[in-house]
Amino acid sequence: MTRDDTLGTRLFVIFNYSFLSLVGLICLLPFINLLATSFSGSTAVASGEVKFWPVDFTLASYEFAMRSKQFSQSMLVAVERVALGVVVNMLLTILAGYALSKEKGNFKWRNFYAWFFVVTILFSGGLIPWYVVISKTGLIDSIWALILPNALPVFNVIVLLNFFRGLPKELEEAAFMDGASHWTVLWKIITPLSKPALATLTLFCIVNHWNSWFDGLILMNRTENYPLQSYLQTVIINPENIINLSRGDYADLLNLVNARTSRAAQLFMGTLPILLVYPFLQKYFTSGLVLGSVKG
Amino acid sequence: MLKIGNSRETPLHLMLLPSVVLVLIYSYLPMVGLLIAFQKFNPAHLFDSPWVGWENFKYVYDMPGSMQVLWNTLTISLFKIIGLIVVPVTFALLLNEVGKSLFKRTFQTLIYLPNFLSWIIMAGVLIDILSPSEGIVNKSLGLIGIDPIYFLGDATWFPITMIVSDVWKGFGFGTVVYLAALTSIDPALYESARVDGAGRWKQTLYITLPGITPIIVLMSVLSLGNVLNAGFDQIFNLYSAQVYETGDIIDTFVYRLGIEQTQFSPATAIGLFKSVISFTLIALSYYLASKFADYRIF
Predict the structure, then answer these.
(1) What is the rounded CA–CA span in Å between residue A164 and residue B278?
(2) Could you report the per-residue pLDDT of B204-245, keeping only the tens digit for each?
(3) What tens digit of pLDDT does each residue of B158-184 get?
(4) What's the pLDDT score for residue A296?
(5) In angstroms, what separates the C-alpha of A137 from chain B's closest C-alpha?
(6) pLDDT at A238 over 50
(7) Which domain holds residue A67?
(8) A20 vs B107: CB contact, 8 Å cut-off?
């Protein structure tokens, strides 16, 4: 920081802090408003009294969500999807990242495979052929429809292969001298050295799977197979769905909640997992960014 | 095939095998499926449907409003691209003047969070706060005497709302990227500039900005491939029939045509058009990035 204390500089510093505080506040307020709505009584919300603090504080909207069969069911599907999807993603990413990190001299087909995968970033079949292929392979209404079509995150593979290439070569060369196989080198030497990179990519896979909604909406015919974000999508498009789809034991709650309070509560619960992993995401992100893309 | 030395490579092939199979089925097979753009596709006959040449493309071209959709896509995505360069650079520069502090970290945390939330959550928040009757934004505007604005229901306001909210969701990412680039500028440069009597403004203009220009160019070039992606996730969850005129984009148009009206072949024709243009733009952008910024993906 410079220490030239002219009047202009001091004015700028004051302006800068105020402006940034204002922008930060504006970014935060919509979420505070949502949170306040979710904890407020339905009449207070309907009459527009709720701003940034709950009015007639109640947990009814959260209780409503918990008793809604649709909400808990799609929460379960989402958790299942994240658990299965992240394992498949990471396993394939590590295997492909390792194989592709080899130089062409050690792996003749390396460039062929690399381009084979990169082409899928550059070109795609588009919506209709994508849907037709998934439905012809019999995955409609199956959890695997949400996992297999995106089983290999090619960008992550590129990030990881670049990371693997940055590791000291001597370690694996020594292991190969001692007669170790590729499998041993990968699991015993490379993987333990790459924990930060793997953690970063795992977080990205978690966020990605948790946030995906379109595939669930299109590939699941029955609403009980919707993951949480797909179900929330139907709630956003048609607010009354939140009551109609609930199929739960909630009659006593109906005068305490309305579509708006329960939507706010369910949206907030839909962001909770992201909020939980966010501190880690932030910590790893800058390093993850450097890992992957910008190389001199 | 089985020469000495190749058996060492067998495990590497095996490691790639599951990925190759899945990518072949779920990425390459749909590319073959693009052929239905030249057919009168009937799901019952699959690929035995009759061939019709360019008829589907003509059909889409002659559809009322299809050129408007292309125009909407281009304008919305271009303004988003510009916004997502100018705004993050501005905030990175302002934040750079704050120094390393709790304030800086808190600000980054706040603006970066929406980047990780899905457009479902963001759409839910936007619908709630922008509602003309109950939303907090219009309530606040009411306090200073402005009539309620239909941000999501008015054809003039809709694209503006899309651009602003997309910049809101995305600018934290760019800010972090540019801030990281700023920290790599050699402090000695500032030192000598101060000795020469350059004030803060001059330092920003002649050292900081040129210092991050390469990464600004790189980010701009890489966003070229997104010119036909105006943001399906966002617009699909926020638009309605009243705003099709200015808010309907290629991806939402394809969705309605293909999934809702089951006109598979015309929808695929548009998809093919989009894929070809995007491919050209991405290839071009990577070429430019490797040429001018020495950027390599692997």
Answers:
(1) 30
(2) 889 999 888 888 888 888 888 889 999 999 999 999 999 999
(3) 999 999 999 999 999 899 889 888 888
(4) 30
(5) 9
(6) yes
(7) 61-296
(8) yes
The shortest C-alpha distance from A248 to chain B (Å) reads 23
Q: Which of B49, B107, B128, B207 best probes binding to A when mutated, by most A CB atoms within 10 angstroms?
A: B128
A112 class by beta-carbon count within 10 Å (0-12 exposed, 13-18 middle, 19+ buried): exposed
Put simply, the chain B residues between 186 and 225 with a CB less than 8 A from any chain A CB are 190, 194, 199-200, 203, 215, 218
Q: Spell out which residues of chain A touch residue B232, defining contact as CB-CB under 8 Å.
A: 214
In single-letter form, the type of residue at position B140 comes to S
| B257-275 tens-digit pLDDT | 999 998 999 999 999 999 9
Q: Is the dihedral of CA B105, B107, B108, B110 positive or negative?
A: positive
Task: List helix spans (H) across chain A.
Answer: 7-38, 42-46, 60-67, 69-101, 110-122, 127-136, 154-166, 169-177, 182-184, 191-193, 195-211, 214-219, 228-237, 241-244, 259-292
B111 contact residues in A (CB cutoff 8 A): 23-24, 27
Q: Looking at chain B from residue 131 to 150, which residues have their Cβ under 8 Å from any Cβ of chain A?
A: 134, 136, 139
Give the Cα separation of B129 and B135 in Å (integer): 4
Residues B18 and B145 in one domain: no
Kindly state whether A223 is in contact with chain B, defined as any CB-CB distance less than 8 angstroms.
Answer: no
* pLDDT value for A264: 94
Average pLDDT (B115-136) is 93
Residue B56 lies in a domain: no
Confidence (pTM): 0.90
Supply B254's token pair. 């394809």
In a domain, B49, yes or no: no
- The helix/strand/coil state of A43 is helix
CATH code assigned at A129: 1.10.3720.10
Cβ pair B246, B158 in contact under 8 A: yes
| Amino acid identity for residue A107 in this structure | F
User: pLDDT class for B291, splitting at 50, 70, 90?
Assistant: confident
Q: Under 8 Å CB-to-CB from B4, ≥6 apart: which residues?
A: none
- The answer to whether residues B34 and B82 belong to one domain is no
Q: What is the pLDDT of residue A266?
A: 95
Cβ–Cβ < 8 Å for A45, A258 = yes
> Residue B285 half-sphere exposure, CB side, CA atoms within 13 Å?
19
- The pLDDT score that the predictor gives to residue B114 is 93
Which among A71, A38, A69 has a CA at the least distance from the CA of A53? Answer: A38
Tell me, yes or no, whether B133 and B29 share the same domain: no
Question: Are A24 and B110 in contact (CB < 8 Å)?
Answer: yes
**Least trusted range by pLDDT, from A176-185, A216-225, A252-261:** A252-261
What local confidence, expressed as pLDDT, does residue B197 receive?
86
Q: What is the ipTM of this complex?
A: 0.89
> In this prediction, what percent of chain A has a pLDDT beyond 70?
94
DSSP per-residue letters across B39-67: B--BTTTBTTSPB-TTHHHHHHHHSTTHH
Question: A89, A127, A258: which to substitute to probe chain B, counting the most B Cβ within 10 Å?
Answer: A127
Average pLDDT value for residue range B70-75? 97
B260 interfacial to chain A (CB closer than 8 Å): no
State how far residue B225 is from chain A, nearest Cα, in angstroms.
9
In a domain? residue B224: yes
